[in-house]
Structures are given as C-alpha cells and as structure tokens.
Design goal:
Chain A is an alpha/beta fold and 268 residues long. Chain A has helices at residues 2-10, 13-20, 68-73, 88-91, 128-134, 150-157, 190-202, 213-218, 249-259; strands at 45-47, 49-51, 54-56, 77-78, 97-99, 114-115, 138-144, 170-172, 181-185, 208-212, 240-242. Chain A has a domain at 128-265: Rossmann fold (3-Layer(aba) Sandwich), CATH 3.40.50.12280. Chain A is built from 9 helices and 11 strands. Chain B is an alpha+beta fold. Classes of the chains: A alpha/beta (268), B alpha+beta (503). The structure holds iron/sulfur cluster.
Chain lengths: 268, 503
C-alpha cells in the first residue's frame, strides 16, 4: 500500500494509469521520430533534397538545408487535399516528395495547410478567454456528413484506453446542446447539409469547429462528385483543420491539445 | 427452367456481355422467381442504360451450395411490371433501380427512395420527375398508446448518420423503419468516371472500415477484365490483410457489445486489442486501415522477412491476449443473459431475404464467399465456415469470436509459408464488352463489385453491393417484439455500414 501511494505521488497520474495498463498509453506530445510509428507510416510529406537525379529522404524539413531559391521552385503541397496515398509521392509535378513519420499536421487555417517545402505552421492556441472557458474541459459533438466512416472510427479510437482523450478533459457528448463545439468528418453530402447546419446552430456560443480528414477539408476523394459540397461550407467557420485520410488519432490529439494551448505543457 | 435463362459464371471470371441471355421482362421475372425457389439468391439486380430509351436490367444470382453464379438480363422501357410482385428479394433492388435509373416498376409495394438523390444512371431520353422523400411518409402504426420515436441522423454516439423511426407500445418495439442516404457521395458514378489511379482511392473509401474488402473486390474485377494475373505472394498478402481487417473489426465489435451491456473490463481490453490489429495493418501498409496496400496487379507493399517475424510475433501475442478477454465476456452469466434471445433473425427469414455474412452464419445459413466462391489464396487455404444457430445477439457475437480465432490461425500459417516472388504485376487495358462479378468475403459479409465494359474497353457500369445493403433490413426484421432499450445492443450486433449502403 505504501508503495502504491509513493508511486502515485511521484509520477503524474497518467503515468500511473499507463503503468496499470501495461505501458500502452500514448504520450500526448512526441518528437517527430520517437512516436513509435512504423517506418511505413505516411505522415507529413516533404520534398526530398535532390542530389543529381537521385532523391534521398532523411525526414528533415527541407527548410534549413535547401536555399530559399530552391524552396520557391518547389511545387505546393496541399495537405488538405492529400489522402496520403503512396502514389502521391510521385505525382507532384515530377518532383520527388516523401512522407515523413511526423504525425503533427493540424493547422489553424486552411492556408496553413499549403506548403512548398513541407513545413507547416502548426495550429496555435485559442485566445485567452476561450482557453479559460475550454482549456480544461472541452465537450465536442461529432457530425459525420458524407464520410466513409474511417474518420469516425479514428475519432472513436480517441476515447479508448490507448489514446484516452478524456485524461485531458476532452470528451464527446451525445447532444450538440451539451457541447462546446462540433467535429465535422466527411465531404458534406447534400443529404446531411441541413442536419449539419442545424447541429452547428444548436451548439451554444462561443463554440469551436474542427474539420477532420481530407473529405471535410477539401472533399477528399469525393471532391469531384455532384452529391457533396466538397467539405465544410464557408458558412461554418473552422478553428482547427486536421489533415489525413483518416488522420492518425495522434494527429487529432496533437491538434486538439495545440488548440487548447496544452501541447507544450505536456511535452516531456 | 431456371438454368437456361441464366448464364453460369464464376467469381472473378469474365464473360462476354453478348453471351448473357437477354430476355423479355416476363421471362426475366419468371427466371428470377424460379431460380430463387430452387435455392439461388440475388447478389445484385441493377440497371444499365442500353440506349436513349431502354434500360438493361441485369441480375446476378448465387447458388451457394453449388458454388455457382448466374447472370441474366432484360431490356425494359421506363414503365415495366415490377419483379418484386413475384420475387421478394427484388424489393430493395427495385427501389434502388427506380431511384438510380428513373424506372417505374408498376405494382411495386413501395418505391420509397433508398438514398435520396436524383437519378444518375437513367437512359437519356427519359423524363424524370423529381421525387421527394416527403411524398413517402413513414409507416405508422395506429392504436391506443402507440408512440413514435425518431432517432438521428445525428446520433448520440460516434457513429455515422442514419434515421431510425420506431413505433412502440410502451417499451416494446412494434416496427422499425430505417431511413438512410445521409452518407450518399455518388460512389458508383465516381468509380465509372475516374481514371484508374483515382478510382482505386474511391474504392478504398466506400466504407472506411472495409478498405481491404472493397479494394480487393474492386481490383479483382479490374484484374479479371485486364487478364492480369497476380502472383501467389500478392494473393497471400491480400489474404493476410483481409483477415487482419476482419480481426480488427470483429474484436472491436466484441468490445462495443461489451460496452453496450455495461461490461467495461472486456470493452476496454477489446478496444486496445482492436488497435493492435490496426497497428499491424499500419506496419504492413503505412495506414491503420490498410489504405495504399492493394492496387490493380497486386499489392504496393511486400512483407519482407524481418517484418514477417515481427508480425508473427505480434499475432502470436495477440492470440494469447485475446483469449482470456473473450473468456471474460462469454463466461459471464450476466453478459450471456443480456445477449440471449435479443434481436433474433430466423434461418427462414434469412433465406427468404438473402441476408449474408455474419448475420446469415449466426442463424445456420453457412454462406461464406471464401468457402463457396473461393478465390485468391482461399483456393489453397480453406478457413472453416463459422456458424451458430440461435440468430440472436449471442450468436452474432460467438460467430465473431470463432472467426477471430480462425483468422489468427490463418495469418500465422500464411506468414510462415509466404510464397516467393514479386508482389505487383502489370495491369493493362480492359477487355471490351465483358462483364465480371468479383465477390469478396469482407468482415461483414459478401462484397460484390460488378463491372461491365463497353465496346471501347471503358467502364460502362460499376455496381457496388456492400453486405450492408442486404442486411439493413435484417435489423428492421429483428427488432419487433424487443425492448426499445435493447436497440443499441441489437444494432451493434449487426454493425452495418451506412457509408457502404449509401455509396
Ligand atoms: S478523409 Fe478519408 S477516412 Fe476520412 S471520411 Fe474521407 S475518405 Fe474517409
């Protein structure tokens, strides 16, 4: 018993819980290369440095090593359109792009998802007033609207014992009237447009909106279909854009914590 | 009579469209009715515009006992006598045809739109009056103290959108009507109109929890039409991925069922183990759902020897870890009493309506594409078909558990004996004027991708049937007589796809 108390006192609560569940909790913030993600994981893409005509990929952003001139010449990658398919590395105007293992990609604006080198400005925290309101307790309502179900599956995974979003005070709730904001997944089908707008209206002010996945950001693979709006309509202002198809739960968690201004706080 | 009117075909083998019988609509109706009476069921029934004024109806039937598929066609004008009057299995398909093609099957019991969208496969000269869902009111049950409960499309949990309308007397459900279509994205049109590299990404996104299943069927159809022969190694890797997908979803479902009867310990454990299955897929393909793995001609990612041993080790550990959790669930009396007798589907209902997959196998109807229409690696490595008899939540849970064990065995065996060779071969142009039926046993059940090419070798029609299309009506059939509070549990035991249905 004494031993237990000592353990609890000397470690963070979630370390204790992590120990109980056999070290299977994930850290909220991890460096780009120590996330435990497998080598084939396709995270934030970068353009590889070109040596002659051989492309090498070392996972570091091009920014520090390539000249400004080179960077301007690189085509734009739109993380909001990418579905992170392996072929995308060859498709970009013949330039060699590569996926890194960096899962951190959530941004505060749509434009921030456009990058020429691969670096992006990650999401910044809400203003102080909103942080005071939501920073330690954020309730969200999911609206899936013309999705494939994949983004929902990863959002559901955020609540399991591995990602356990609730330890940060973030939870999904049953009704928009109990929520501080909505999370939108899917390309927004014609048939869900009404329900989405009504759900958004039903959330009391002030509220936040999170767009999850390529579909919600740009229409994703369904962008060309007449049956979808091609992402969240402009009538609904988005505070956090989380790219991926579907985004890894860590990408989502990292984005949410940045939005709440808590990502640094939890860094080891 | 039935077999003269049907062209026999096999899973993933092309036939020339010209060889498929083209019947008068009365003969077509008679052929469907008599085939179904002699043990066939409808895999798909769909419309393809023939010219500006005529629609070609195509029926693909399956005889599971004999491992045979059959195809037959008819040309119809916009109005034709409904097939549903003599063939109950055609009811949902004709609703779909009316909606997609603008046809009017006269005498059909109810042409309520299934997905609510304007026709996108209609002959160009037909006039298509707009159809409103509002013109088709929900079924009402009259009587004292009967009340309606409406749920959705935005639900309480983290699930996809759909609308459920109950008529209930007190706690007892009298009827359940399910309105879907909220996830409709126009998938079939995208598959038909996109170049192949784009279409395969759409196929991966038909149902986000069935990436491997749908992409496998999609590629099966394309490869057959291109006469591209995958290597044994690629077939085996696809089989391993399909079983990993089954593991992830079945284990996840067992967890969700635990959660719905408030048994948190197994819910938490199963939840974590589901993640481990997804992580195995990510190790192989770079994505937790296996996106990027399967492409026409094989797979993009090999499993090199170092990875083989890592995956083997992790599957072995999974095997050890999942068993005690399943025992925790299935040996608990209070769990059993909550699963027992809830949401019963009978074998008779199943055969009459043509349900597939876990739902069918849970009521003694042993259909399994891997066994009945074996393809790819399943021709060499048979997985015994898992069945149960009671047709209730318990049966659907135990079938999942049996399949979890068998899939793990399969994966271990296949990894230990991966054939040598390349994993990707060329997959070129499609043969003109052919039809292929590619079936795959996804974790929910039979997935069908039926592709027809035109004289120029372009895709003329790409029909997708997710198992959920067959099985959503099983949920409506299972609910009457149950408590309304058991709906979440019952729903979870079917765990059907909204996206897969809505397309
Ligand atoms: S972004 Fe990808 S995973 Fe998410 S809903 Fe769209 S297709 Fe599905």
């Amino acid at each position: 018993m004494a031993f237990c108390r000592k353990v609890v006192a000397e470690t963070l609560v979630f370390d204790y819980l992590r120990a109980r569940f056999g070290h299977r909790f994930t850290r909220a913030s991890l460096g780009p290369n120590d996330s435990g993600l497998p080598v084939r994981f396709r995270g934030r893409p970068v353009f590889a440095q070109l040596h002659g005509d051989v492309a090498t990929v070392d996972g570091t952003p091009v920014g520090e090593t390539a000249s400004e001139h080179r960077r301007r010449d690189l085509p734009i990658i739109d993380l909001g359109r990418s579905v992170f398919a392996p072929e995308e590395t060859q498709r970009l105007d013949g330039q060699a792009a590569a996926f890194t293992q960096d899962y951190r990609m959530a941004a505060s604006s749509r434009n921030a998802l456009l990058t020429s080198g691969g670096e992006i400005e990650l999401a910044h925290a809400l203003d102080r007033k909103m942080r005071r309101l939501l920073g330690r307790s954020l309730r969200l309502r999911l609206v899936a609207a013309g999705s494939c179900g994949g983004c929902e599956a990863e959002l559901a995974a955020l609540s399991n014992v591995v990602f356990d979003m609730a330890r940060f005070g973030i939870q999904f709730v049953a009704s928009p009237r109990h929520a501080d904001g909505i999370v939108i997944a899917g390309a927004v089908s014609e048939n869900m447009r009404d329900a989405l707008e009504k759900t958004y209206e039903a959330v009391p002010d002030p509220k936040i909106v999170v767009a999850v996945g390529a579909c919600a950001i740009s229409g994703g693979v369904f962008a060309e279909s007449k049956r979808v709006l091609g992402g969240v309509p402009s009538s609904i202002p988005v505070d956090l854009w989380i790219p991926g198809c579907p985004p890894h739960p860590l990408t989502m968690l990292d984005g949410l914590l940045r939005l709440l201004g808590r990502a640094d706080h939890l860094k080891e | 009579m039935s077999t003269h009117a049907l062209l026999t075909l096999y899973n993933r083998r092309c036939v020339s469209v010209a060889d498929i019988p083209l019947l008068e609509v009365e003969e077509f109706a008679a052929a469907l009715a008599s085939s179904i009476a002699s043990g066939w069921r409808i895999v798909s029934l769909f419309g393809v515009p023939e010219d500006t004024r005529a629609l070609r109806l195509c029926a693909v039937l399956a005889n599971d006992d004999r491992g045979l598929l059959g195809a037959t066609c008819a040309l119809v004008r916009q109005e034709y006598p409904a097939l549903s009057t003599s063939c109950r299995q055609a009811v949902r398909f004709e609703r779909e045809i009316a909606e997609q093609c603008g046809a009017i099957p006269t005498g059909h019991p109810s042409l309520k739109p299934l997905r609510r969208h304007p026709p996108d496969h209609a002959p160009s000269a037909w006039t298509l009056p707009p159809k409103n869902r509002e013109d088709f009111p929900f079924d009402v049950v009259h009587g004292d103290e009967v009340h309606e409960v409406a749920v959705g499309p935005v639900h309480a949990g983290i699930i996809e959108p759909g609308h459920f309308r109950f008529n209930a007397h007190g706690e007892e459900v009298l009827s359940l009507e399910i309105m879907l279509g909220y996830q409709h994205r126009g998938v079939e049109r995208l598959l038909e109109g996109s170049e192949r590299g784009r279409a395969v990404l759409v196929a991966e996104s038909i149902a986000g929890d069935t990436v491997i299943g749908h992409t496998g069927a999609f590629c099966g159809a394309i490869e057959a039409l291109a006469r591209s022969h995958k290597t044994p190694r690629a077939q085996t890797i696809r089989g391993i991925a399909l079983e990993l997908e089954r593991l992830a979803n079945h284990i996840g479902d067992l967890g969700a069922l635990s959660g719905d009867v408030a048994y948190q310990s197994s819910a938490a454990f199963f939840g974590r183990l589901r993640g481990e299955c997804l992580n195995l897929l990510m190790t192989i393909s770079g994505n937790r759902y296996g996106r990027g793995l399967i492409r026409p001609g094989g797979v993009l990612f090999d499993i090199p020897p170092t990875m083989t041993s890592e995956v083997l080790r992790r599957v072995e550990r999974l095997r050890e870890e999942v068993r005690p959790v399943a025992e925790l669930l299935f040996e608990n009396a209070s769990v059993q009493s909550r699963f027992d007798g809830v949401g019963v589907v009978s074998a008779e209902q199943c055969r009459a309506a043509g349900y597939v997959g876990v739902v069918a196998r849970s009521c003694r109807v042993p259909v399994d594409v891997r066994h009945d229409f074996a393809y790819g690696v399943y021709r060499y490595a048979q997985i015994p078909v898992a069945t149960a008899w009671s047709g209730d939540v318990y049966a659907r849970a135990i079938v999942r558990w049996l399949e979890v064990q068998r899939s793990m065995e399969f994966i271990v065996e296949q990894l230990a004996a991966l054939p040598r060779g390349e994993v990707l071969v060329d997959c070129g142009a499609l043969r003109p004027s052919e039809l292929v039926v590619a079936l795959e046993e996804g974790w929910r059940g039979e997935i069908a991708h039926i592709v027809m090419t035109d004289a120029g070798g372009h895709i003329r029609r790409h029909k997708v049937v997710d198992p959920s299309f067959h099985n959503w009506s099983a949920l409506s059939a299972a609910m009457p007589g149950n408590q309304i509070s058991d709906f979440p549990l019952c729903n979870k035991s079917f765990n059907l796809s909204y996206a897969g249905h809505d397309l």
